[in-house]
Amino acid sequence: MNIVVDARGMRCPWPVLRLARALRTADAVTILADDPAAPGEITALAATHGWTVSDRDGGFFVSRAP
């Protein structure tokens, strides 16, 4: 299941908190975030958990490792 999380207008750490919450129940999340700190925060969170991250549709596609 892929969930879309719209975190535009939110400042970090809110986008990564929303991402972490969504990945509790989903296998993959597309997160839209416009905070300049978000790419680094999302990448760091994914690295900590072993998730994969790629750019997609103006946001980031994050999935749990198989």
Question: Roughly what fraction of the amino acids lie in strands?
Answer: 25-35%
Please tell me the overall pLDDT: 94
Terminal-residue CA separation: 13 Å
Poorly predicted runs of 5 or more residues:
none
Helicity level, as a percent range? 25-40%
Instruction: Please compute the radius of gyration using only Cα atoms.
Output: 10 Å
Helix and strand element order: EHEHEE
Indicate the structural class: alpha+beta
Largest sheet: 4 strands, mixed
Mass-distribution shape: globular
Number of strands: 4
Lateral strand order in the biggest sheet: 1-2-4-3
Number of helical elements:
2
What does this structure look like?
This protein is of the alpha+beta class. Helices cover 32% and strands 30% of the residues. The chain contains two helices and four strands, in the order E-H-E-H-E-E. Helix 1 runs parallel beside helix 2. The longest helix has 12 residues. The chain is globular.
How does the SSE layout of this entry go?
Elements: E1 2-6, H1 14-22, E2 28-32, H2 38-49, E3 52-56, E4 59-63
Parallel strand pairs: 1-2
Antiparallel strand pairs: 2-4, 3-4
Helix pairs in contact: 1-2
